[in-house]
Design brief:
heterodimer; A: mainly beta; Rieske Iron-sulfur Protein; four-stranded antiparallel beta sheet; 1 helix; B: mainly alpha; Cytochrome Bc1 Complex, Chain C; about 70% helix; about 5% strand; binds protoporphyrin IX containing FE; binds FE2/S2 (inorganic) cluster
């Protein structure tokens, strides 16, 4: 009955295109859907990329990038992560799950590592 | 003219003999339990009626759900009122049941022979909360989506049954369109069936546990017909006026459509009766006794709920411990809720 109640879940390595590199300004972030989950891709002020599954490790709210504070915030219970994904303050018990960012023919691509 | 019709109707319905029997029976006029039950039944009828109306226009799939509720509110005559009644009535139901549960617990009205009324009543309360949770998912707004995420994740933190419960609530590992379909199926079919069964059982236990209505004219008793029924009617009318006024004058915004990638908005918070849990989750450090704090809090909550089911069986005659614990729990929850909104 439990099997019936829950559809088949397929686990494959997901990947998603974000946007062309030159459209992705430093100090901003974009969100994409990766498989069934939200992914957060950040371009740091120095031009490098970071990407995480955008789900808070506390209770799975969707986190967002705060440009003023240059950090990742979860507004559900005031959880805060550094741009490196580390849980800095508030209730989250673990760092965010990191994703891999690659540039493929001028396009930013995130994928599960 | 009236008399022959009445006689004809009486022959077939037995109405006047029922009325005479009820007039001869007396109940304790000031016992609140006699009115709360009737009030709950009335609110439930109102809830089901408004729910069935919403059902006529609601589209249970992720692509159309939000637009269909927006259309109910903006495009269908009295649609906004019906939705608002459904929402306010659901809050009043939850409030009344909470008041009832705590008043029973504090007065220790669950003692023999009412143990099973307590157990079936508490079960019904959780079914009601399941109604409220699945209902809140249905508009598939950003708030609805977040509540589906956090609600199922909180359930998932429960010891033993947690992961399975989360899987069923989500219809898979993740919150997806399947989650909305599951919420819908539960809200309009599974839970109504479950609640009907439970309330039937509750009523069966009630019949055995109630003091038999007497025919003696002891002080404080009133006849069932007309006095008690008129008073009950007054309570119901007052409830109806309250629901309609709230529904008319206090808007319940729908919010924007759900987007999987949108970060939680500022001030995202659960319904009022879970604010105390929200406050605990928010103030807790990442870990308590080496366990993630959310798991700790939910685990502790699960133990309290489990114990609550057995409350009548712990209770010792003459001891006020269970009453004191219930009062303390209520006090703490109210204080934390106030703290959460300040
Ligand atoms: C058989 C009974 C019921 C039916 C057929 C029904 C039907 C519906 C439908 C179709 C919706 C979606 C429309 C909308 O979101 O505005 C809805 C929403 C909702 N229902 Fe029910 N319902 C029933 C009972 C209940 C009960 C007992 C509760 C009580 C706790 C409840 C609480 C809610 C809530 C909170 C919503 C969310 C409304 C919103 O935010 O728009 N429902 N219901
Ligand atoms: S879900 Fe992010 S802090 Fe609680």
């Amino acid at each position: 009955m439990v099997r019936f109640l829950s559809p088949v879940s397929r686990r494959t390595k997901e990947r998603a295109e974000v946007c062309p590199v030159d459209e992705f300004a430093a100090g901003t972030a974009r969100s994409v859907v990766l498989g069934e989950q939200a992914a957060l891709v950040i371009r740091l002020p120095d031009g490098s990329f970071r990407a995480y599954i955008a789900l808070c490790t506390h209770l799975q709210c969707v986190v967002g990038y705060s440009a003023e504070n240059n950090r990742i915030e979860c507004r559900c219970h005031e959880g805060v992560y550094s741009v490196e994904g580390a849980n800095v303050s508030g209730p989250p018990p673990r760092p965010l799950a990191a994703l891999k960012v690659t540039i493929e023919s001028g396009v930013v691509v995130v994928s599960e590592g | 003219m009236a008399a022959p019709v009445q006689g004809w109707f009486d022959d077939r319905s037995g109405w006047s003999s029922l009325r005479k029997r009820l007039a001869a029976r007396r109940v304790r006029g000031n016992s609140p339990l006699l009115y709360v039950g009737g009030l709950l039944a009335f609110l439930l009828v109102l809830q089901v009626a408004s729910g069935l109306l919403l059902l006529l226009h609601y589209q249970p799939n992720a692509a159309e759900a939000h637009a269909s509720v927006a259309f109910i509110v903006g495009g269908i005559p009295y649609g906004a009122l019906v939705r608002s009644i459904h929402l306010w009535c659901s809050d009043l139901l939850v409030l009344t049941v909470i008041v009832q549960l705590f008043s029973v617990a504090i007065r220790r009205a669950f003692r023999s022979p009412r143990e099973l009324m307590w157990v079936s009543g508490l079960f019904s309360f959780f079914i009601l909360l399941a109604f409220a949770f699945t209902g809140a998912v249905l508009p598939w707004s950003q708030d609805a989506y977040l509540q589906a995420r956090v609600g199922s994740e909180i359930a998932g933190q429960m010891p033993v049954a947690g992961p399975l419960l989360r899987y069923i609530m989500r219809g898979g590992d993740e919150v997806t369109t399947a989650t909305l379909r599951h919420a819908y199926g539960f809200h309009v079919a599974v839970l109504p069936a479950a609640l009907t069964g439970l309330l039937f059982v509750h009523a069966v236990f009630l019949r055995r546990a109630m003091p038999e209505p007497t025919s003696e004219r002891t002080p404080g008793t009133i006849p069932i017909y007309p006095d008690y029924l008129v008073r009950l009617g007054t309570v119901m009318t007052a409830a109806l006026v309250l629901v309609i006024s709230l529904a008319t004058f206090v808007e319940r915004p729908l919010g924007v459509a759900a987007e999987v990638t949108a970060a939680a908005p500022d001030g995202a918070s659960p319904p009022w009766y879970l604010l105390f849990v929200h406050d605990l989750l928010l103030r807790a450090p990442p870990e308590l006794l080496g366990v993630p704090s959310a798991k700790f809090i939910v685990g502790a909550g699960a133990v309290v709920i489990l114990l609550a089911f057995f409350l009548p069986f712990f209770d010792r005659r003459g001891s006020r411990v269970t009453a004191a614990l219930s009062a303390l729990l209520l006090f703490a929850a109210v204080m934390l809720s106030i703290h959460a909104v300040l």
